[in-house]
Amino acid sequence: MYQSLHTTVFDKEGIPFETQIRTWDMHHTAEYGIAAHWKYKAGISGKDRLEERLAWVRQLIESQQEGQDAEEIIRSIKSDIAPEEVFVFTPKGDVINLPAGSTVIDYAYAIHSQVGNRMVGAKVDGRMVSIDFVVQTGMIVEILTSNSKTQGPSRDWLNIVRTNEARSKIRNWFKKERLEENIAEGKDTVEKEFKRNFITLTEEQLAQFLLEEAKRQHYSSVNEFYASIGYGGIALSKIMPRIKEEYTKLYRAPDPLKIERPITKPKKERKASSGVIVEGLEGCLVKFARCCNPLPGDEITGFVTRGYGVSIHKKDCTNVLMGVNDKEQQARWVKAHWAASVKETFQSTVEIMAGSHGGILADISIMLNNMHVPIHSFIAKELSDHRTHIQITMGINDVNQLNFIISNLKKVSGITSIERMNQ
């Protein structure tokens, strides 16, 4: 029979405090409890589970009356209760309930899909936090958003969020907004999985095989199948066992352990630590020419320097085109190619020309951050014609990644041109 009016209000500083309103009779019942009176009348003695719970409630009331710090009371409650849910405040004082372990991303999507999709950061109790920050009961959470059309969630968020609601909304965003990117991502995933599972087909066989698989998954085309894998609608790892079984049935694929490897002559050259193999020179020192900054995927050649190993250039580098025609240096040019697997990261610089759009630097930074691109240098200056000249040096794995970054940066409003630089 506990009765009381409760409300929580916020002052101008955003600090919450609770008000309880009750009559003296209600207060008497709250203090001593109808259950204690009932237990006395029933002649029950000794302690039981109910009495332990009543004692805990009484202790909380006493703590409040003694004027203990509100944060301390909250901490004691949270330590006594096994939390299955957390209750978080918006800056306006509304309460959002979430499963325990939820992050600020879950909170953003619980408010609205657009808040989550445009989220660029979060504040908890007035302090900036990371996007994987786990919220707790009583926290005041503010979501920072961007109005940029290029802003959107990251695929990594799917591994961070706790709620199915947030995960579903993130997938829907990728499904609608990043169709081409999803198709490319899905196609790359399929190629890697097929290669790892020794599934080899001609182009015609592959197209027919994937079309049949797409129909099984209720898609009308292979691209829809690719896109679903790209945005996470289909977990390829879960259907791979059945795909392998179907492949074996249709094409009689031999046991992968018994597959004869293609006969290739082993190369004497050893893979350099840089990921480049120089023909005829085993274990030589390799350095990358700063005049062209080659990346994995570029056609390359080597130049034997005096005392500094082999300098690696792009084949279309100006110094190469001039040097191969020099009779004195022709003998020093050697063949070189990238190793099959290059794990190193290389620095590459792009040059951007943009209009006088005020938020252009923020938009570029946000996009690079969402793509998880490490930035080594970011230089921007305003030209006399009020255009903005920007040079960004990034950590890149290969040419394909650089081209993907450039194609995405071209979507940023205000950018007029973007080119890869040779330093």
Number of helical segments? 14
Question: Can you summarize the main beta sheet?
Answer: 5 strands, mixed
> What general form does the structure show?
elongated
Question: Care to count the β-strands?
Answer: 16
What Rg is obtained from the alpha carbons, in whole angstroms? 32 Å
What do the pLDDT scores average to? 78
Identify the strand order in the major beta sheet: 8-12-10-11-9
Helix/strand order:
EEHHHHEEHHEEEHHHHHEEEEHEEHEEHE
Amount of beta strand: 15-25%
Helix and strand content put the structural class at alpha+beta
List the main descriptive attributes of the protein structure presented here.
alpha+beta, 38% helix, 423 residues, elongated, single chain, four-stranded antiparallel β-sheet, 16 strands, 14 helices
Descriptive account of the structure:
This protein is α+β, with helices and mostly antiparallel strands and 423 residues long. It has 14 helices and 16 strands. It has helices spanning 24-32, 34-42, 49-65, 70-80, 104-111, 113-117, 164-177, 179-196, 203-216, 222-231, 236-251, 318-323, 360-370, 399-409, and strands spanning 5-10, 16-21, 85-89, 95-99, 119-124, 127-129, 141-145, 276-278, 286-288, 300-304, 310-314, 333-338, 346-354, 375-382, 388-396, 415-421. The strands form five sheets. It has a five-stranded mixed β-sheet. Strands 14-15-13-16 form a four-stranded antiparallel β-sheet. Strand 10 (300-304) and strand 11 form a beta hairpin. Helix 5 packs across helix 7 (164-177) and helix 7 packs across helix 10 (222-231). It is elongated, with a radius of gyration of 32 Å.
